[in-house]
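Database export, one record per block. Field names are fixed; values are copied verbatim from the stored entry.
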Amino acid sequence: MRRKIVAGNWKMNLTFPQARELALHLNTWVNAHKPNAEIIIAPTHLYLEQLNKDLKNSRIRVASQNVSAMENGAYTGDVSAEQLLSIGTKISIVGHSERRAYHHEVDKYIGMKISHLYKKGMSPILCVGEKLEDRESGKHFDVVKEQLNIALERQNPEDLLRDFIVAYEPVWAIGTGKTASPDQAQEMHDFIRKTIGNQHGLAVANATSILYGGSVNAGNARDLFEQYDIDGALVGGASLKLEDFTTIINARG
């Protein structure tokens, strides 16, 4: 059964006191309002251990923004799945467009990250999405299909059935204020689900929660969530403001 999920990617924002205050206030709100959606927050690696402790008995899951594809060794600055797991983190974003653009991560390497997470009993949030020139040239479906197929080609369907989340984030809509229309987003989410189904079967496709990301805010969330294949959102800037983030969570219903 597809889960309703609202995740906040805090990126490289907030000092530790600010992040902890936001997380604790969010937890208080969740306890009071008991939303139907699953809530995930992804702070910087530095804050994961303490926020995992603070939210140990919470309904909020704490995710990493990234993970290494390597198990251990001479990889300065990287963080392994085992290290994340040792401080209570069981889920990680992989393949975010900023990692692809600034760190030159390719689909095969992203697939290695997913395999490594599952090997350690963890789970991924796989980000996919096209650039503006891809959409304008009509190649957006081809780009997203390739990202999915290469990243997932070696994955075990049983792992994907256990806990697998995809976030569709059109690169041209991330941090730009531009948002895919509900129809555009639904069209791509439907395509993603069918692509997963063709590769790993209908059971995996129907169990995968597909989130929309790309300038999601309190004003457009409800229209996006009304689309059949949009199961939730991966929220950037709006997740840094408690009122905006909780409004989006409420919109998910």
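Remark 1: The domain at 5-252 is CATH 3.20.20.70 (TIM Barrel).
Remark 2: The chain has a mean pLDDT of 96.
End of record.
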